[in-house]
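Chapter review: from sequence to fold.
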Amino acid sequence: MANPLAQFEIKTLVPIQLGSVDASLTNSGLFMVTTVAAITIFLTLGIRSRNVVPGRWQSMAELSYEFIAGMIRDNVGSEGRKYFPFIFSLFMFILFANLIGLIPYSFTFTSHIIVTFAMALFVFLGVTVIAIARHKMHFFSFFLPKGVPMVMAPILVPIEVLSYLSRPISLSIRLFANMMAGHTMMKVFAGFVIPLGIFGGWAPLGVDIALTAFEFLVAFLQAYVFTVLTCLYLNDAINLH
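The token string follows.
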């Protein structure tokens, strides 16, 4: 049976050495470029016609736009509209990466903690910079909510700081763990199909088909959760408590 974790191995496709820096194109990098290209094609096809009565591609593009616009409106408010391009790009990038990773012989780079942590850290640093730029020193009141007795500060402040600093960790692990676990289970059950033969292989094949359908749902949900949490963090940065 093939190693179910072999699908997550980083492989060099085009070796590129810039001095002491290894800038080689890997399978992970290739599928990141593929994801961006797929999003570009999808949106280009969606906005090309601009019909009053939208066609199939235009409807999907408009639905994606309205979905993210509604998410920002509900979780951030009117102040969040200026951040729409970033949040929309983040959602589409994660969603397409997850969906493309379900294609046989493709590569799911969102199953790597370094990728998800890089995105989560960028979000964390971005909302922190926004909060400090908007509120200056008042930003630190976030760690001691208004109305809390000062006697509770030595206990509450460290807890709030630790909770705040753990945001990029929890955000990245949630996406990475779900994608890696799902693909690993699919590979494990697929490995039983041929060894069990024509009579016994139907059971793991049926499970694998069900898991594949479930993974399509997970692909969307994980993109949604990552994005909606980004909106909530942005709301905290703009409005504090």
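Two observations follow directly from the output. Strands lie at 12-14, 17-18, 21-22, 25-26. The radius of gyration is 22 Å.
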